Write the structure tokens for this entry.
Amino acid sequence: MILLFFGPPGAGKGTQAGRIEKKYGLVQLSTGDMLRDHKKRGTDLGQKAASFMDNGKLVPDDVLVAMIKDRIQQDDCKGGFILDGFPRTQAQAEALDAMLSQGGLGIDAVIVLTVDENALVDRITGRYSCADCGAGYHEHFSPPKAEGICDQCGGHTFTRRADDTEEKVRTRLQEYHDKTAPLLPFYQGKGLIQTVDGMGPIEEVAVAIDTILAPFNVQGAKQGRAV
Ligand code: AP5
């Protein structure tokens, strides 16, 4: 199965895509995580992306398209994958269609998470993660069970994303409205859109998504599919 998560910054794309990866075995392809990894390692791609990301702007299409094209050809994507944060422009959407159709594939569903804009800012500015294992937390909505200790690895050091300030979030939202939201009619026209209210608690949103996925028999998709 090829699943696409769509929604503004902070809508819960990463949270839900990560959950689906664990539950169904579909690989989560987060372009934000991939770019941050390149940035951390100081690759050419990371250096090219850094100034755009740090300013809340979209990274140029050619960088993203090449990165995703390379990634979906890897073996772990053969059983299906979840695109979390890609495509975000018309050019990326068209490039994705072309690369999938070359392999005889197509997107099965586009899950759109809708969230009130003020809630997005709260979610993003309260978000942090474990510096050792990357586990994600939120000051109010999902803090670690023991204060200052990572639930997953016991680490004591936490970090915040450079683009998670209120000013950068506003720029990211503007980028979303200008360049990404206009893609909705493109996928609507293909009959792929499934809208989920992302305002409820994480578990409620998860149930709504699982209900959408039920008819797809996603466990079966793990058995292998050529890309
Ligand atoms: P990226 O990392 O993709 O950031 P984003 O789209 O801004 O999305 P976020 O990760 O901020 O939010 P999310 O929707 O995943 O929410 P999350 O689950 O984390 O991209 C970063 C940058 O990389 C871009 O600005 C751009 O520069 C570049 N980039 C990436 N892809 C690109 C592309 N295709 N083209 C060009 N440039 C690209 O949740 C947020 C918080 O809310 C968490 O703390 C979570 O615990 C909490 N939360 C989640 N769900 C709920 C809920 N239901 N209730 C309460 N809290 C919740």
Summary: Confidence is low (pLDDT under 50) at residues 220-227. The beta strands are 2-6, 27-30, 81-84, 109-114, 127-130, 136-138, 158-159, 193-197.
